[in-house]
Design a protein that fits this description.
Structural class: alpha+beta
Shape: extended
Strand content: 15-25%
Helix content: 40-55%
Distance between the termini: 56 Å
Amino acid sequence: MKEFYKIRRDLVFKTIFENKKNWDLLERLIEEVIHEEVKIERILLTELNNDKVRIRRKVLDVLVKTKNDRINIEINSSNHNYFRRRNAAFIFKIYSDSINAGDSYNDMDRIIQINLSAEQESAPHFPLVSEYMLHDKKLNRNYIDNFKIYEINITEMAKLCYNGEKEMCLLGMLDMSQKELESIKGDKYMDRLKEEVVEINNDEEMIKLLSDEDEERLYINTMKEIGREEGVKEKTVEMVKKMLKENIDISTISRVSGLSEKEIKEIAKEK
């Protein structure tokens, strides 16, 4: 059966929402999160400048400029701490860069980050909508007034939308399968979004790009796994060498390290 690429896939999301003809869909999506009227002026460059050569480039999903706001939207495959820390690095960089764009600190844009996160069975359940600010709990006041982070559980949104909840349904559609999208009925925005994702999934060139993206991700994950395994092996060898120096008997070292006595004898020769 042909794979159906959900809207929450990075390339699908960017292809749909960065297209100027679909800015009204993006505005509507953002409005479902912040509950304010949104009018997009432009989509900003999504690669952040980086002064530190050793740190890899930061590529955002969608960065929107409105009259008074910069809104960074990130699609995440889970809400693990890794993604939160990565997204925090993005939003703090955007906040820092926005200072140069204003005549004074009082003229700075409001900086908003929207994390659209999928829920994984292996990870703890997280709330439908979370809002974060730099806040003093004791004094009950915000440290700054132009900074906010939203985290949306799009997997739970999809369930609500599928079961008839329409208040935040564009968000829910991001994590819907083809069958689920075909089953739901909604307004003109929902219908347009359906058409867009179906068109992408029927575009052979786009499917090739998405397939290549899958292959690249699989390769990267495989290399990471190999790296982890090699790292564990290296640490085990170092531990064995230290135990040999302490004249611990080989049978004990084998039991502790999980290596065979033959492997330990080979390591002993390398000392």
